[in-house]
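Recall the central idea of this unit: under ordinary conditions, the amino acid sequence of a chain determines the structure it adopts. In this exercise we apply that idea directly, starting from the sequence alone.
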Amino acid sequence: MLQGILFGVVMATILDPIGVDEVRLRAERAADADVLSSLHRNGDCAAAVRSIDLRFVGSASGTSGLSAKSADLGLTVIQSVQIPDGTTAIDLSVHSDALPSTIDRLTVIALKIESRFNLRYDGWGTVATKC
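Accordingly, the structure predicted from this sequence is:
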């Protein structure tokens, strides 16, 4: 259940006041539905807790700021890499189930992180997990 993210005190103070663009949220929800459908087709047990990875792309200062606050948000930094176009990508993980309602909350949080740190949310991924 999004350990740390949904219940973090710091998350409430730095992300709660941030709104999300409804058009963007609808687009992300459609992409999420595709990923969840693919997981299901591959035998995924959505209730199983596993690592879910998220990627954000932007300036070095934005990714650095997110990296500094990641633990407060319940996220673990996996890596930070330079992209040939001069931007930086930061990959983070969270331990969570992949139930549609949980993924929806994760997506809203990711879009708030995107706004807060002036980054571009580049989606999430995980592997199909058996119960």
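Confidence is low (pLDDT under 50) at residues 4-10.
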